[in-house]
Amino acid sequence: MDKLKAAELIKEIITNDEFKIDEPMKNHTTFKVGGNADLFVAPKNKQHIIDIIKICNQNEIPLITIGNGSNIIVRDKGIRGIVMKIFNNYSKIIVENEIIRSESGALLSKVTNIALANSLSGLEFAGGIPGTIGGAVTMNAGAYSGQMKDVVIKTEVVDKNGVVRVLQGDEHDFCYRKSAIQKNEYVVLECILRLCHKDYNEIKEKMDEMRKGAGCE
């Protein structure tokens, strides 16, 4: 890979504050270890993500997509190619009655707390799970007999060619810690969850019990 050529291509679509060369990955993982990524990008919107994927595909540039770096360890030699971090820059959450729409970079714990604040039940199991909601949907994260499969009704993804697709219901092909998203190497853009209204105190009590059981308190 020609690092400088790749850098010029990326600079055409994003600003300098979203793009870095030879970025230490220890700055982007919870374990605080790891060498440098050749190129590092932090997209701010859906089109950025799509364009970056297209550039990598068309120019045969290796691409690794991460969330908040909670479940990865980077080797000291670093990462060749581009690391795309979908996190705070792309993390809007919208509540519409019993529906939550979330951009993939939002922390799952934040989505869970917003559900609680709106007296929405269904995500109590997820309060202590680290990482972004995009990662959680991709691997069908779960705990305490709950899993993302139970609440996800629709997911907008982009494939390796930069084509946006929408998965609904059984098209997710959820199974234990796997999904069609993982199998097809899709990148999650947005997911839609269907929850249900319940008493706030009842939801909070359940969440607190689960967090205590997981040693989060």
Structural topology:
Elements: H1 3-11, E1 19-24, E2 36-41, H2 46-58, E3 63-66, E4 79-85, E5 93-96, E6 99-103, H3 108-117, E7 120-121, H4 133-138, E8 142-143, E9 146-147, E10 152-158, E11 164-168, H5 180-183, E12 187-194, E13 196-197, H6 200-213
Parallel strand pairs: 2-4, 3-4
Antiparallel strand pairs: 1-2, 5-6, 6-12, 7-13, 8-9, 10-11, 10-12
CATH topology of the largest domain: Uridine Diphospho-n-acetylenolpyruvylglucosamine Reductase, domain 3
- Major sheet: size, sense and barrel closure? 5 strands, antiparallel
- The spatial strand order of the largest sheet comes to 5-6-12-10-11
Q: Which word captures the global form?
A: globular
Count of individual helical segments:
6
CATH architecture level-2 label of the largest domain: 2-Layer Sandwich
The helix/strand series, from N terminus to C terminus, equals: HEEHEEEEHEHEEEEHEEH
Q: Span from first to last CA? A: 46 Å
Number of strands: 13
> How many domain regions?
2
Based on secondary structure, the structural category is alpha+beta
CATH class of the largest domain: Alpha Beta
- Arithmetic mean pLDDT: 93
Query: Which regions contain 5 or more consecutive residues with pLDDT less than 50?
Result: none
Residue share in β-strands? 25-35%
Our Rg estimate from Cα atoms comes to 18 Å
Helical amount among residues, as a percent range?
A: 25-40%
